[in-house]
Design goal:
Elements (H helix, E strand, L loop, with lengths): L29 H29 L9 H7 L3 H29 L3 H28 L14 H6 L4
Helix pairs in contact: 1-3, 3-4
Length: 161
Amino acid sequence: MTTAQPAQPAPRAPRLKEPQVRSGRLRPGAEQWSWRFMRLSGPLLVVLILTHLFINLMTGDGVNQIDFAFVAGKWAAPLWKIWDLTMLVLAMLHGGNGMRLLINDYAQRPWMKKLLHGALGVAVIGIIVLGSLVIFTFDPCPTGTDPELLNIELCKELGRL
């Protein structure tokens, strides 16, 4: 009679450590805040943009009313300046953040990522600065302008006509 030897357990493959993938961000948790910003700014942008379109296109004479005088009258009220500034800033930051994610996904060389991120940052900041300047330095009654183009009531109220 032969005695059976006890079955030996199968050898286990050595466990390899999974490589740590770093996002390249200097602040831990920044991607989570980026994700949250996108989820909050998206619905807010929808409300801001749909209201903007409704006021500009559906009230009054529709698209026929949009001219220099319409914009001057609208931006005479601080509410609409803040509304348009908020829409501009949120849209640029939301879109810039989305582009940043695309750059991270598709740019493979580190120097290309840096170049594209730099160009994106310059574009986003530049458009926000220029748009803010337009909103806050807009002159509703420029001198030497044809009075038919101006909002006459607004210019009289401001003492510019």
